[in-house]
Amino acid sequence: MTQLPAPGATPAAPPPAEPLPTTTPARPRWRETLGLLARNPTAAVSATVLVLIVLVAVFDETLAPYGPNEQDPSLQLQPPSRDHPFGTDEFGRDVFSRVILGAGTSLRVGFLSVAFALVVGTLIGLVAGYYGRWVDDTLMRLMDVLFAFPAVLLAIAIVAIRGAGPANAILAIGIVYVPIFARVTRASVLGVREEVYVRASRSVGASDWRLITRHVLPNAAPPIIVQTSVSLAFAVLAEAALSFLGLGPRRPNPSWGLMLADGRGFIEQAWWYAVFPGLAIVVTVLCFNLLGDGLRDVLDPRQRTLMAGGGR
Questions:
Q1: CA–CA separation, 106 vs 124, rounded Å?
Q2: Partner of 244 at 20 to 30 A CA spacing, among 14, 15, 75, 278?
Q3: Are 191 and 201 in contact (CB under 8 A)?
Q4: What does the pLDDT read at residue 116?
Q5: Per-residue model confidence (pLDDT) at position 10
Q6: Rounded distance, CA 193 to CA 191, Å?
Q7: 291: which residues sit within 8 A by CB, 6+ positions away?
Q8: Class of domain 40-59+86-308
Q9: pLDDT of residue 24
Q10: First-to-last C-alpha distance (Å) of the chain
C-alpha cells in the first residue's frame, strides 16, 4: 500500500534523469576505406608513388628539361651526368626527358584502354548476372570466345588488322580485358542479386534500373575496383609490349616500350638507354599490383573487420 505524504510536507524531488548516451556519427565508407588503406604501408607507399608518376605524366612538358626530339650530335650515347641524369641516346637526345614524356603516352594508353574495358565489361557482366538464363548464356559464350585467344596475341592481331598507333593500341588492349571485367562483375552480381535487401526492393515494385543502380552495382563494386587496379598494371605492360614490337606509338614519339626496343641494340655500350625506361615500366606495374593487393584486403569484409579492429 502506497504511503501518502503528510499534509503540508514538501514532496520529494524526482530522481535525476540518466544522461542520454552520446553517439558519434558513422564515418563515410569511402573515408574509412582510405583510412584503412593508409594503415597498410605497402599500399600507401604504392599509391604515393603512383600519384607522383601520374603527376609527372600530366605535367610532362613542364618537368622535362629538354624536348623529346632535341638532338645534340656531340653528346651521342653519353653516360648519366649532372646535365643528363639518365644519359643520352644515339642521337644525343636526353633519356631523362624522354622517360618523363613517355610516361604520358604509356599511362594514357593504359588508363583509356582499362576505362574502355571497365565500362563495356561491367555492363555485360551486370546484364548477364542480373537477368541470367539465355541472356547470361549468350553473353558469356561470347566472352569465352575472346578468352580462347592468348591476350597478347589477340591484341597483336587487332593492331595488325587496324594498323599501328596509340588509338588502335587502346582499342586492342581494351578488347582483351573486356571478358575479364565481364566475368568478375557477373560473379559479384550473382552473389548480390539474391540478397534480402534486393528481394525486398523488388517486392515493393522497384524497377530493374533502380535495383541495378541503387543496390546491385554499389554492392558488387569492390571486386571490380580491385580488378581495375590489377588491369592497369597489365595494360601498361601490354602497351610496352606492343610498342616494343613496333605496334604502338610511332617514332619519334617517346614511349617506354619503344625506348626499350631502341635501347636493346646498345645494351653493352650504353646500358642506361634501355635500363631506365625498363625501370619506369617495372616500378609502375609493381605499384599498381601492390595497390591492388591492398585494395583487396581493405574491401574484403573479413579482412576489413580485422584491420578495423587492429588485428592486422
A1: 27
A2: 75
A3: no
A4: 94
A5: 57
A6: 6
A7: 43, 46, 47, 50, 229
A8: mainly alpha
A9: 47
A10: 61
**pLDDT at 120 (0 to 100):** 94
Q: Which residue has the cell 599511362?
A: 107
Q: What is the 3-state secondary structure (H, E, C) of the chain?
A: CCCCCCCCCCCCCCCCCCCCCCCCCCCCHHHHHHHHHHCCHHHHHHHHHHHHHHHHHHCHHHHCCCCCCCCCHHHCCCCCCCCCCCCECCCCCEHHHHHHHHHHHHHHHHHHHHHHHHHHHHHHHHHHHHHCHHHHHHHHHHHHHHHCCCHHHHHHHHHHHHCCCHHHHHHHHHHHHHHHHHHHHHHHHHHHCCCHHHHHHHHCCCCHHHHHHHHHHHHHHHHHHHHHHHHHHHHHHHHHHHHHCCCCCCCCCCCHHHHHHHHHHHCCCCHHHHHHHHHHHHHHHHHHHHHHHHHHHHHCHHHHHHHHCCCC
Q: Is the dihedral of CA 245, 246, 249, 252 positive or negative?
A: positive
> Please, how many CA atoms are within 13 Å of residue 254, restricted to the half-sphere of its CB?
26
- Which residue type sits at 8? G
Kindly give the parts of the chain with pLDDT less than 70.
1-37, 300-312
pTM, full prediction: 0.80
- pLDDT, position 133: 84
Nearest in space to 237 (alpha carbons), one of 272, 289, 276, 185: 289
Q: Angle CA(226)–CA(228)–CA(232) in degrees, nearest 5?
A: 125
Place of cell 636526353: 94
How many other C-beta atoms can be found within 10 angstroms of the C-beta atom of residue 96? 21
8 A C-beta contact, residue 72 and residue 92: yes
